């Protein structure tokens, strides 16, 4: 099944995926640093500070999970590019609009299947 996208469009989308991957990797390095356990001196740090620290770590863990999911989506998009199936919906095999891919280059589904 050949792609409906031109070589120039595919190159632009690959470049955008590369850009998003680099940005995500920077974010993940920061998130990893923030996730390191913080040792709190129980005698000098108040109860609210400990609660605030726990909440921050919880939010950071959620961010880390979203980053891992996005990383998997980008990796899968690169696999589809290499396999020649990029730009086709993985559910219905219909073309994914170039405009959609510009916004979400990792998108595996057309807008119709994504809304289901």
Key attributes of the depicted protein:
0% strand; 116 residues; mainly alpha; Four Helix Bundle (Hemerythrin (Met), subunit A)
Description:
By secondary structure, this protein is mostly helical. It has one domain (7-114): Four Helix Bundle (Hemerythrin (Met), subunit A). The protein is built from 4 helices and no strands. It has helices spanning 7-35, 47-83, 98-103, 111-114. Helix 1 (7-35) runs antiparallel to helix 2 (47-83). It is elongated and about 60 Å long. The two termini are 24 Å apart.
CATH class group: Mainly Alpha
CATH architecture heading = Up-down Bundle
Give the assembly state of these chains: single chain
- Average of per-residue pLDDT values: 87
What is the helix tally? 4
Strand content: under 5%
Summing up helix and strand content along with how strands pair, one would put the structural category as: mainly alpha
Q: Indicate the radius of gyration in whole angstroms.
A: 20 Å
Distance between the termini: 24 Å
The helix content, as a percent range, equals 55-70%
CATH level 4 superfamily: DksA, coiled-coil domain
Main sheet properties: none
CATH topology: Four Helix Bundle (Hemerythrin (Met), subunit A)
Low-confidence runs of at least 5 consecutive residues: none
Report the strand count.
0
Tell the overall outline: elongated
| Helix and strand element order | HHHH
The count of domains is 1
